Hints:
about 25% helix, globular
Amino acid sequence: MVQAVSKTISFLEFVNSYPEYKSQELHHGVVVEMAQPSGKHKNVTGFLVGEITFEFKQLKQPYFIASKVLVKLSDGESAYLSDILVLNKPNLVNEPLYDKYSTVTQAASIPLVIEVVSSNWSDDYALKFEEYSNIGIPEYWIVDYLGLGGKEFIGYPKQPTITVCNLAANIYRRNIFRNSDRIHSQIFPNLNLIAQQIFDSA
Length: 202
């Protein structure tokens, strides 16, 4: 669950008072306290971090997985803490907010972002879906290992689902993976990963 604090603040106010020991996001000027993830949520995240790190090391790509780095629209008052944020290190020199505020704003810095769905599933399927596409992040995964998302996103009856969103003409195209489906990633085309492996990692 998340808890919003109703007072509206600017991004700079948010990051200048940001307590490192807390997980908070800024949603259109409203501070949102993020709940501590469950153990299963952490298991899934840890599994994916290992698989993706192996992949970009194999390909000798200049990527790393960041911890507690905010993703922000350059002209907005929102900033998000992604569950998994893959960063392109060479482009970070072009990020005006990175050194001081650990914040990235450019698609060239973010080849892939992943959200592991919890009770606030609408943020992942709607809010962040729109914001990440507006930034221009080329690939966005929504890992719904519990099948929590709305029927309009994962169908009915609900079941564990992975949605891989790829940017085409500035719009995300959704691809759905379940059960024994092999995940297709444009960022990591040689990735050998089955949806059920991710679900079982919980």
